[in-house]
Amino acid sequence: MRGVRGGGADGAVPTGTKTPGGRRAAPLPSGPGSGTRGGSRLRRERQVLVFDADDTLWENNVLFERVIEDFLDWMAHPTLDRLQLRAVLDDIEAANTVTHGYGTQSLLRSLADCVERLRSRPTTAQELEEIKELAAALIDHQVELIPGVAETLTALGDRHDLLLLTKGDPDEQQRKIDMSRLAHHFREIGIVPEKNDATYRSLIETHGLTPATSWMIGNSPRSDILPARRAGMNAVFIPNQHTWVLEHDELDHTDEQVLHLGTFRELTNHF
Description:
GO terms for molecular function: hydrolase activity. It comes from Streptomyces bathyalis. Pfam families: Hydrolase (PF00702). By secondary structure, this protein is an alpha/beta fold.
């Protein structure tokens, strides 16, 4: 998940925006609900399902990757090959996300910084304009839902409490949420600058969640699965082949509180 750029990085969860027809999350009843790594046991007791957005509900990072591929063609460095150029860009992006966050504007900044580093001079106005043109698709694109998302959320919403937690710039993320037409499925929507251990501890406290019956569902080991588990929640990992390299991390495959699925539709076999 490549979220969008936002300010700050303390991971605090805001009270959020009430969704159409929704309400703020209230304390939820406790009950059994520990995860298993395999099988298809249906959890009939009511659970809280917290969903990531980018690359979980809709495709996102594949658009960034297309822009980066075009950028690497455009750079045409005389001595570095594409893998070496990408390594430089990855380092720059990793540094920029700490201070500037995620998303379109963050990528534009990183591409310009990459030009400046590799050409050992300030980026020209013409180069900045050409970089902006390369990234135009990120600004104008329509949201493409991952197959099965809408109907799966409908089915899950009849049995469980659904929340949305996404990171990045509020305006950019809200635009994607609005375009997806999925907001009505969620009791609460939270847009945060970063998703880390503190984010999930705040989520649990703010909404009175019972960790044993609460699940973070997403494609990112670094932002969705690992910090949620460290906060005591269960997790569902649904990999996306286009997940941003900076969201990769190692998962403990012996952790029985993490459910590994192949597709979004499979959620209805377990919840």
